[in-house]
Specification:
16 helices, alpha/beta, Immunoglobulin-like, 8-stranded parallel beta sheet, TIM Barrel, 6-stranded antiparallel beta sheet, binds 1-deoxynojirimycin
């Protein structure tokens, strides 16, 4: 088997730093807190952590508005705290991936302060400025993802600037070579420090149409029914010609260092050819792991997942590693989407499919979305268009003590009311808990080449079931997932032994097995 890198075999765990562990009792998580929980992550068995943004930021979009790319947001700690975290993580064989937000900065970033100061400032062209239309309206019809126009007028200089997200997040102009160099220097700063890679935010949106043409109306859009930010197709504002060349330049910076990983957030899609179009080629490599968000978008049914996984496996370029994302800080948690019994089936699927699994913090204990009333929303998307991501960003539930062991003070978002029973301490002691399911599956994946690096092939299965084989070194693993709440009987291709059931109560051998409602099994053939 070819030599592979850790991120091709391993598992990445996403930490939302504000909500993972508070070490200093101010109600928000921090870097020392993460360090204090590394032993837990080591026990869990993951290979890398991806930290959502930790750089200085006014927090208009909770860190996705960066005001300095080479320092730490003070409430999270400082560079010494970061170096300590990196060193302690590496001691435990855990890699650290940071979140890079190159499409836009904060409006408080000195680059933008310079840029907006006058029309002839040398940094004017670092952002995207245009004159108003003759009637004073914005230069085109582009909409912000967070509601309203993607343009804000700067009264003082009389021009509009572009912001794909909040007005506090002005978009950089990547047609300007100085912008690229400044961002590349920011990347080098962290890679030199020993960071193992970056997850790159909205990487496919860094290049815009040079003519800034109007986006066409979305023919499927229904006023009053649909999210108003989807009124136009983003034809001219994302995935434009030139984006692949720019990504290759970013990748070349990563490749100045040994074995670093570039993970890219591209548009949410279930089209394998769109996702796979971002790997590049061996001669001109692009993203190591362009996010595959299909599990967040497909209807929860076996046929849809089989069809997608088959097409994805067939479309991946030779030598490329796939990936599967089951949850993140922007999406409703999996337990809320499909219910906890099926979330166990989803865990087995995530940890046995071909591709690097991404686990969002708290999924391993079955944390669900927390009801937060609109007047307590912190997320600008919730405040502006009513679709709040706060529900899935609540504090990690460690134990049955006040504030769930996350903090000693009132927390920035409420702790889930189920924390007395849904927490790490309780679940570690319960042999059939979600946590022990994750822990066992992670261990099995780690020690089984068929699971972390083997071939993938789906098999015919009863309706409502998704069954596939993973194979390496002549060892065959069969995964049978029952997506329904009815019993289903599976005939195995040959005699097999159940290694684990999602119910964690079953070990047996045979050529036929009956899956109970909401059950998945891993079988060695
Ligand atoms: C995608 C990030 O995941 C999301 O949280 C953020 O709001 C936008 N990009 C803007 O940076």
């Amino acid at each position: 088997m070819a030599q592979t890198s850790w991120w091709q075999r391993g598992i990445v765990y996403q930490i939302y730093p504000r909500s993972f562990m508070d070490s200093n009792g101010d109600g928000i998580g921090d870097l020392r807190g993460i360090s204090a929980r590394l032993d837990y992550l080591h026990w869990l068995g993951i290979d890398g952590i991806w930290l959502s943004p930790i750089f200085p930021s006014p927090m208009a979009d909770f860190g996705y508005d960066v005001s300095n790319y080479t320092d730490i947001y003070p409430p999270f700690g400082n560079l010494d705290d970061f170096d300590h975290l990196l060193e302690e993580a590496h001691k435990r064989d855990i890699r650290v991936i940071l979140d890079l937000v190159p499409n836009h900065t904060s409006n408080h970033h000195p680059w933008f302060l310079d840029s907006r100061s006058s029309r002839d400032n040398p940094k004017r062209d670092w952002y995207i400025w245009r004159d108003p239309q003759p009637d004073g309206s914005p230069p085109n019809n582009w909409l912000s993802y967070f509601g309203g126009a993607a343009w804000t007028l700067d009264e003082k200089t009389g021009q509009y600037y572009l912001h794909s997200f909040l007005p506090e997040q002005p978009d950089l102009n990547y047609h300007n070579p100085e912008v690229k160099q400044a961002m590349f220097d920011g990347i080098r700063f962290w890679l030199k420090r020993g960071v193992d890679g970056f997850r790159v935010d909205v990487i496919d949106r860094m290049i815009k149409d040079e003519l800034l043409r109007d986006n066409p109306l979305n023919p499927d859009y229904v006023e009053g029914r649909d999210n108003p930010t989807g009124k136009y197709l983003r034809l001219y504002s994302e995935n434009r010609p030139g984006i692949h060349e720019l990504i290759r330049e970013f990748r070349a910076v990563f490749d100045e260092f040994k074995d670093r990983v570039m993970i890219g957030e591209i548009a949410y899609s279930t089209d394998p050819s769109l996702i796979c179009g971002f790997y590049g080629t061996e001669q001109a490599p692009e993203i190591n792991l362009p996010f595959n968000f299909a599990p967040l978008m497909l209807p929860w049914n076996a046929a849809a997942f089989r069809q997608f996984a088959d097409a994805y496996a067939a479309t991946l370029p030779a030598g490329a590693t796939g990936n599967y994302v089951l949850g993140n800080h922007d999406q409703t948690r999996v337990g809320t989407r499909i219910g906890l019994p099926q979330a166990r089936v989803a865990a087995l699927m995530l940890l046995t499919l071909a591709g690097t699994p991404f686990i969002y913090y708290g999924e391993e204990i079955g944390m669900c979305d927390v009801a937060i009333p609109p007047h307590l929303y912190q997320d600008p998307q919730g405040i502006n268009i009513g679709i709040s991501r706060d529900h899935q960003r609540t504090p990690m539930q460690w134990e049955n003590t006040p504030y769930a062991g996350f903090s000693t003070a009132e927390t920035w978002l409420p702790v889930a009311p189920d924390y007395p029973v849904v927490n790490v301490a309780v679940q570690r002691g319960d042999p059939t808990s979600m946590l022990n399911l994750y822990h066992t599956l992670i261990e099995l994946r780690r020690v089984t080449p068929a699971l972390h690096s083997g071939t993938y092939q789906s098999l015919a299965a009863p309706e409502g079931c998704f069954v596939y084989l993973r194979e390496a070194d002549l060892r065959q693993m069969l995964v049978a997932l029952n997506f329904t709440n009815e019993e289903k009987t599976i005939t195995l291709p040959r005699y097999g032994k159940v290694l684990i059931s999602t119910h964690l109560d079953r070990v047996e051998t045979g050529t036929q097995l009956t899956l109970r409602p909401d059950e998945g099994v891993l079988v060695e053939l």
